[in-house]
């Protein structure tokens, strides 16, 4: 009579080198079939909403959009489906050339009041600004335009922006003035943070901030992480918008304006509970009222 030995599952899994979690997951879901058809259709529709931009959504943003559509789905499943359909966007892996507006000490350097504290629980308390260049025309040419947006750290909303062929002091001041004059009455002071670009050291920039009782803050020299949110914004914009070549200035500027409108009003952000910046700010104001 053959003797039967009982061996524990723990020992078997150790011998065959399979994690316990994998074993129990497989056992508990044995025979379960995932019907991905509805999810695939929903993802495809999400990617078609703003065809030029939403096709670049990553799996986390797609997951947030699916949650808004009442799908109870895990981001890992979304990632698997997107990989199977070659819907993963690699545009954000590109490195872009950064415009440097630092010209040495040409005015006054303000202290770093922000100190990388990018979070705030109230709109218009912390604003950031920076300048970046966008190129157009035939390869090898130096044709370019410059963009300066003013971004609210509460929601990531672009409050104002300016586009020009020349990154002058007047060019930089225009969106700042528009943003500050558009602020509602606040019971706290606004801080405006920038790098040490020559435009931001200028007397006119400082005077405008004083007129609106706003604090001035500056990054430390050659420390781009001190204004990381603005750097991230430019990276996202160029990855999603500059995947096509623009032959002339007019078409490039129009594409920039179109994308900023999309970003403010329709581009969902996982950090904002799946809402675009303007919608998130409006809901927050309604809740506080």
Automatic annotation (TrEMBL):
Q: Name one GO molecular function term.
A: nucleic acid binding
Tell me the organism: Levilactobacillus paucivorans
Tell me which Gene Ontology terms the entry assigns under biological process: DNA integration
Q: What does this protein do?
A: Involved in the transposition of the insertion sequence.
Q: Which residues form the Integrase catalytic domain?
A: 119-285
- The molecule here is called Integrase catalytic domain-containing protein
Q: Which InterPro entries match?
A: HTH-like_dom, Integrase_cat-core, RNaseH-like_sf, RNaseH_sf, Transpos_IS3, Transposase_IS3/IS150/IS904
């Amino acid at each position: 009579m053959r003797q039967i030995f009982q061996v524990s599952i723990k020992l078997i899994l150790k011998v065959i080198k399979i994690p316990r979690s994998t074993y129990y997951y497989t056992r508990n879901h044995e025979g379960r079939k995932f019907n991905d058809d509805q999810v695939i259709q929903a993802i495809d529709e999400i990617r078609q909403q703003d065809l030029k931009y939403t096709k670049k959504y990553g799996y986390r943003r797609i997951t947030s959009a699916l949650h808004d559509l009442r799908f109870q789905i895990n981001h890992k499943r979304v990632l698997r489906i997107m990989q199977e359909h070659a819907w993963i966007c690699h545009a954000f892996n590109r490195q872009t050339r950064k415009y440097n507006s630092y010209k040495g000490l040409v005015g006054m350097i303000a202290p770093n009041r922000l100190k990388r504290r990018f979070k705030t629980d109230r709109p218009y308390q912390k604003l950031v600004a920076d300048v970046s260049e966008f190129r157009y025309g035939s390869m090898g040419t130096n044709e370019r335009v410059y963009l300066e947006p003013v971004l609210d750290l509460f929601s990531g909303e672009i409050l104002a922006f300016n586009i020009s062929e020349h990154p002058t002091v007047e060019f930089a001041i225009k969106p700042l003035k528009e943003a500050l004059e558009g602020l509602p009455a606040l019971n706290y002071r606004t801080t405006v943070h920038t790098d040490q670009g020559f435009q931001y050291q200028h007397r006119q920039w400082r005077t405008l901030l004083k007129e609106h009782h706003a604090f001035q803050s500056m990054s430390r020299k050659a420390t781009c992480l001190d204004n990381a949110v603005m750097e991230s914004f430019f990276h996202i914009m160029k990855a999603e918008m500059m995947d096509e070549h623009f032959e002339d200035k007019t078409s490039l500027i129009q594409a920039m304006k179109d994308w900023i409108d999309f970003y403010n009003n329709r581009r969902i952000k996982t950090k904002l509970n799946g809402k675009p910046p303007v919608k998130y700010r409006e809901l927050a104001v309604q809740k506080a009222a």
